[in-house]
Amino acid sequence: MFPFFFDWTFILILPAFALSLWAQFKVKRTFAHYSEVPSRSGMTGAQVARRILDSSGLNNIGVEAQEGSLTDHYHPKEKVIRLSEPVFGSHSLSAVAVAAHESGHALQDQAGYAPMRLRSTFVPAATIGSNLAMPLFFIGFIFSKSMGWMMDVGILLFVGAVAFTLITLPVELNASARAIRVLTNGGYLATDEIDDAKKVLSAAAWTYVAATAVAVMSLLRLLILRQSRD
Predict the structure, then answer these.
(1) Closest by alpha carbon to 124, among 160, 158, 150?
(2) β-pairing verdict for 73-75 and 62-66
(3) Is residue 156 part of a domain?
(4) φ and ψ at 36, to 5 degrees?
(5) Could you tell me if residue 210 is inside a domain?
(6) Which contiguous run of DSSP H or E holds residue 68?
(7) Cβ atoms within 10 A of the Cβ of 1, count?
């Protein structure tokens, strides 16, 4: 067990983990800062999302409040945008930016955005891979003489999780780009406020960049460890 967790290959993912910690700190700090800055329009996150949806002919998509912070998401199957409490009823720049971002996902769904559809097909693989890949690989690593094949199964499952992470990055970046475009063209924010909204969404984007880096480097580590058992 000790060599598996602390062999030299662990060095490969340390920079990615460091980036992930920095990204989490950055998004929380940026969100908190602009949560204290009210938008001049006075519209809440829920109102912004509702207006964006209605103006795009998406009256069938609901907007609901959800407990927690930074738990905002769009559910394509249920056709609903769920906004966290700090976003749903707040008229801050952070709330407006996040609400517009989630609305961007609804716009992707409406347009049949290919990467979003592709990501949906990887959800089962990502769920299974996230839960089973490491345990199976670990068992195969320890008992490599008799159960080495389990390492290969673990790697294959992990590839599904990595693929999901890779596809998620362009989906999120595109949703943010759509959000900024809508906020600008729809007059939801003034020019200087748009710059601040970009900072909020840029900070959030770094969390997906970091997640991608961690996933890819973790896969590389598993491949190296697998090779060492041959």
Answers:
(1) 160
(2) unpaired
(3) yes
(4) -95, 0
(5) yes
(6) none
(7) 8
139 inside domain:
yes
Nearest 5°: the CA angle 122, 71, 14 is 65
For residue 16, which of 223, 216, 226, 220 has the smallest C-alpha distance? 216
Which domain range does residue 96 map to?
Answer: 13-228
Which residues, including other chains, have CB under 8 Å from residue 204's CB and lie 6 or more apart? 27, 31, 98, 101, 172, 176
End-to-end CA distance of the chain: 18
The catalytic site residues sit at 102
Placement of tokens 């998004």 in the chain: 27
CB count, 10 Å around CB of 142? 14
- 33: how many CB neighbours lie within 10 A of its CB? 16
List, for residues 45-85, the tens digit of each pLDDT value: 999 999 999 999 999 999 999 999 889 999 999 999 999 99
Q: Report the distance separating Cα 113 and Cα 184, nearest Å.
A: 21
pTM assigned to the model? 0.91
- In the chain, the number of structural domains is 1
**Per-residue pLDDT tens for 3-58?**
445 577 888 899 999 999 999 999 999 999 999 999 999 999 999 999 999 999 99
Distance CA 72, CA 160 (A): 24
Q: Is residue 115 part of a domain?
A: yes
